[in-house]
């Protein structure tokens, strides 16, 4: 089915992370003004502001900002929106990292080095009084609608899927799907948990959504098929990495082989080289190698 730009009160804001259609945020219109789900990285704050303006709003109009988790492509600009007066809603385990982002910033710098600021921009604290941690099942009501927080670990311990009416904002636990390609799960370190992820997929299925709002990327209306693809590829990719590690491969050696493996996986349904590259932009292969290697080593220790 075709990807849509809007569904009811929800509009995709394409932040053009390196190219179109890789990282998005979602504007939710209500009679009390707009809300935002996801912020994108701070490096694209100008693009976010332009997209919000293009929908007829100013950043100061946004009083509610919901982030699925604190990774920088999802919540990196939260502090900027807080300075414009927004309240930031986040998982309790992620809240302190927004208040004191030193550990998050240090981890990102170790991974991205000199590319850190170019990719993700600056990271500054969110004032504690601007943060609302959300418990599992908690509903935030405003403008005649309610967003329900569903804790969905697996990709990260601090991950929330938000339910709005018959749609789910799935962050990264719902996988990456560019255009009509397959659903690829991102496996970054440090807290990949395949058992928790399987439980989270079951919870998302149980919500019986008719629409999925994917940060990477767009609005999809074939939820059952989407979750089927996600589950198959979680198992397929994780098993491939385990087999390579069991055969004695090092993490460094695995990265180029994993890139070739995922290239072939994406090429199976006939994706173009440019579409395959878009997946790599949204989900760098080396991150999944590191994340899954850490997971399997913890399982064996």
Describe what this molecule looks like in 3D.
It is built from 11 helices and 13 strands. Helix 8 (223-246) runs antiparallel to helix 9 (251-267). The chain has a single domain, classed as Metallo-beta-lactamase, Chain A, CATH 3.60.15. The longest helix has 24 residues, at 223-246. Strand 4, helix 1 (45-54) and strand 5 form a beta-alpha-beta unit. By secondary structure, the protein is of the alpha/beta class.
Number of strands: 13
Structural class by secondary-structure content: alpha/beta
CATH-defined superfamily: Ribonuclease Z/Hydroxyacylglutathione hydrolase-like
How much β-strand is present in the residues?
15-25%
Unreliable stretches: none
How is this fold's topology laid out?
Layout lengths: L5 E2 L2 E5 L9 E5 L6 E3 L7 H10 L9 E3 L5 H4 L2 H6 L3 E4 L1 H8 L2 H11 L3 H5 L10 E3 L5 E4 L2 E7 L8 E5 L2 E3 L24 H13 L4 E4 L3 E3 L2 H24 L4 H17 L5 H10 L2 H16 L1
Concise summary:
By secondary structure, the chain is α/β, with parallel strands linked by helices.
């Amino acid at each position: 089915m075709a990807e849509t730009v809007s569904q009811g009160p929800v509009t995709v804001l394409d932040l053009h992370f390196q190219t179109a259609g890789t990282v998005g945020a979602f504007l939710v219109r209500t009679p009390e003004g707009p809300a935002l789900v996801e912020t994108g990285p701070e490096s694209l704050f100008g693009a976010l502001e332009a997209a919000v303006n293009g929908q007829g709003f100013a950043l100061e109009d946004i009083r509610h900002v919901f982030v699925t988790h604190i990774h920088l492509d999802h919540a990196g600009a939260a502090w900027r929106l807080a300075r414009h007066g927004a309240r930031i809603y986040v998982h309790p385990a992620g809240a302190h990292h927004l208040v004191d982002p030193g550990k998050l910033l240090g981890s990102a710098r170790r991974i991205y080095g000199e590319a850190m600021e170019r990719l993700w921009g600056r990271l500054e604290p969110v004032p504690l009084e601007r943060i609302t941690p959300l418990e599992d099942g908690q509903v935030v009501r405003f403008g005649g609608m309610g967003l329900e927080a569903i804790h969905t670990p697996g990709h990260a311990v601090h991950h929330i899927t938000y339910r709005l009416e018959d749609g789910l904002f799935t962050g990264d636990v719902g996988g990456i799907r560019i255009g009509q390609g397959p659903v690829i799960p991102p496996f970054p370190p440090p807290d990949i948990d395949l058992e928790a992820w399987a439980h989270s997929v079951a919870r998302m299925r149980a919500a019986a959504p008719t629409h999925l709002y994917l940060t990477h990327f767009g609005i999809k209306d074939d939820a059952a098929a989407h979750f089927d693809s996600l589950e198959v590829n979680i198992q397929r990719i994780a098993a491939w990495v385990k087999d390579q590690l069991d055969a004695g491969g090092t993490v460094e050696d695995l990265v180029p082989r994993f890139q070739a493996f995922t290239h072939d996986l994406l090429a199976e349904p006939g994706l173009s080289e440019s579409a395959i590259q878009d997946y790599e932009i949204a989900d760098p292969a080396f991150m999944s190698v590191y994340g899954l290697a850490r997971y399997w080593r913890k399982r064996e220790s």
